Amino acid sequence: MKRSTLSPLMLPYGAVSPSLAEPIGRYGPGSAVLGRTTIGRACSLASLSVVRADGHYVNIGDSFWLGEHSTVHIAHEIYPCIIGDRVTVGSNACVHACTVGNDCVIEDHAVILDGSIVQDGVVLEAGSVVFPRSQLEAGYVYAGVPAKPIRQILPDEVAKRAHQIRSAAVPELSQSAIHVVAGSFLAGQADSFATGVAPSTFVAATARIRGSLYTESNASIWFGCVLDAGEAEIRVGRNSNIQDNTSIHCTSAPLILGRDAVIGHNVKLSSCTIGDRALIGIGSLVAEGTIVESDVLLAAGARTMPGQRLESGWVWAGNPARPIGKLDAKKHEMIAWTVKTYTQYAQDYLFSQEHLLRESV
């Protein structure tokens, strides 16, 4: 099979392929641009970053910067993601189904959630979470969970913070062509994985897998994910999805993910157990030894304690995670809908990825 280390990986969603304006920017190894995405001139995506537009569109302006292991995504048929000019996003951040104005800086590990509007010239500090449908006013620094304004922007502060993020990652990037095939799970990016991967499982071409992986039917492991089973194993149940840029690092114990479960973007998981129909929110952290029972929703940006047990039937949030309300019928329906949507996404991308790999032979 003919392979290339050039990036980004580009795949259509349905009949729509990404569009990148010239002059083309720089793209790190394992970066991916997918589906109904339009990106402006001179944009840079660091290694294992993901821009994915399937159930809606992504429109990004000129001089965009997306840091290592960061994600831009949409909300299926609800919200697109629209990003202005000269926006800088740090590493391990997630910009999800929102609108971001010009000249904004979104620092490392920050999360912006669905329906939010970030006006021009905003700085979102590292580790902050913008709750759904929030509005961040122009010219302020925001921080915290949920993100709140802490002060007005100082003169030249946006430019300085943007330069700090961009200059730190320059060595990772390289000028490259755009219509190329990135490394693939099928072409050996996985390292000594077990043979228990169901044929209907979608493993994205830019995922990185080490050790023993077992999956049931229609499971999916998305772009930029890093799964390291160590000396243990990772088990993923039927219809469950592990979304873009999530990392799993096992110690001597396995990670077990039940059926019909959702692991959001940019989640960090250690050896733990997650039950059926659970949802782990964007940018959250599940510590070693945690037991997430079935029918639990862990909110975006939450943190569990080592060995903590999250009781079934509740929404958990905060640091450390605590129950904040019952998991009502509406949230049950949302989890089931997400599972169904991702099962369809996975089959669509499995088809387009395999088609691309066959053409490259």
Q: What would you note in describing this structure?
A:
12% of the residues lie in helices and 33% in strands. It has helices at 157-169, 329-360, and strands spanning 9-11, 19-20, 26-27, 32-39, 44-45, 50-60, 65-66, 71-73, 81-83, 88-89, 94-96, 99-100, 105-106, 111-112, 117-118, 123-124, 129-130, 135-136, 140-143, 148-152, 202-203, 208-215, 220-221, 226-236, 241-242, 247-249, 255-257, 262-263, 268-269, 273-274, 279-280, 285-286, 291-292, 297-298, 309-310, 314-317, 322-326. A hairpin with a 4-residue loop joins strand 19 and strand 20 (148-152). The longest helix has 32 residues, at 329-360. The model is unreliable at 1-6 and 174-192 (pLDDT under 50).
Query: Roughly what is the average pLDDT, rounded to an integer?
Result: 91
The CATH top-level class label of the largest domain: Mainly Beta
Question: Would you report the number of β strands?
Answer: 37
Assembly type: single chain
Instruction: Please work out how many helical segments DSSP would assign.
Output: 2
Note the main sheet: 12 strands, parallel
Poorly predicted regions:
1-6, 174-192
Query: What form results from the Cα inertia axes?
Result: globular
Integer count of domains: 2
Tell me the strand percentage band: 25-35%
Please give the radius of gyration in angstroms.
19 Å
Looking at the structure, the CATH topology of the largest domain is UDP N-Acetylglucosamine Acyltransferase, domain 1
